[in-house]
Amino acid sequence: MIKVTVLYPNGPGKTFDMSYYLASHMPMVKQRIGAALKGMAVDEGLGGVEPGAPPPYLAIGHLFFESLDAFKLAFATHGVPIVADVPNYTNSQPVIQVNEVRL
Amino acid sequence: MIKVTVLYPNGPGKTFDMSYYLASHMPMVKQRIGAALKGMAVDEGLGGVEPGAPPPYLAIGHLFFESLDAFKLAFATHGVPIVADVPNYTNSQPVIQVNEVRL
């Protein structure tokens, strides 16, 4: 299983609208990608490991695909409108990583 | 639900022994924390979103807890031996983030 992880870095002046992300962005992603999307997950950064430390990332989104090819096809087909929606909920430039799920 | 995400940054000379991590480190974490640990997940970085780009993180581990207090207690009780095992599988300094699972 492939997990595409989208990390939104925290920093001075960085904002993230979790309500929009959950209610509008992620449902749009799901609707566009359709059956190739095997699952999704959303994490909201609360903090670092030290008490009072800010979270390195404001939010982390995860998209699951059966294979690398399935992800590549979905991104090639639907990437443009999905990426175009990002400024509607954050001014943070996302870091994207493609993972293989090992456990 | 609380998800503690441990990210191992990639970089020149950085190494990560996934076999040791899966076969020894994560089982040790599970055994030590016990019932307070509600789940775990491991991702292996394959690449960035651009073809041929390296993954920002060599690996990402996730630990699930029912509450922030449950995590804090587990980390206070078992953190030292868990952290002490890190050099046995990587020379990457992990970035740790505490998340609330939103989806």
Question: What can you tell me about this protein's structure?
Answer:
Two copies of one chain form a homodimer. With 103 residues, chain A is an alpha+beta fold. Chain A has two helices and four strands. Chain A has helices at 18-33, 68-84; strands at 2-9, 39-47, 57-65, 95-101. A four-stranded antiparallel β-sheet of chain A has the order 2-3-1-4. The longest helix of chain A has 17 residues, at 68-84. The first copy, chain A, is globular. The relative contact order of chain A is 0.34. The mean pLDDT of chain A is 97. At the A-B interface, β1, α1, β2 and β4 of A face β1, α1, β2 and β4 of B. β2 of chain A pairs antiparallel with β4 (95-101) of chain B.
Overall mean confidence score, pLDDT of chain A: 97
* Apparent shape of chain A: globular
| Secondary structural class of chain A | alpha+beta
Number of strands of chain A: 4
Percentage of residues in helical conformation of chain A: 25-40%
Largest interface: A-B, 33 and 33 residues
What does the secondary structure layout of this molecule look like, with pairings?
2 copies of one chain form a homodimer.
Chain A lengths: L1 E8 L8 H16 L5 E9 L9 E9 L2 H17 L10 E7 L2
Antiparallel strand pairs in A: 1-3, 1-4, 2-3
Helix pairs in contact in A: 1-2
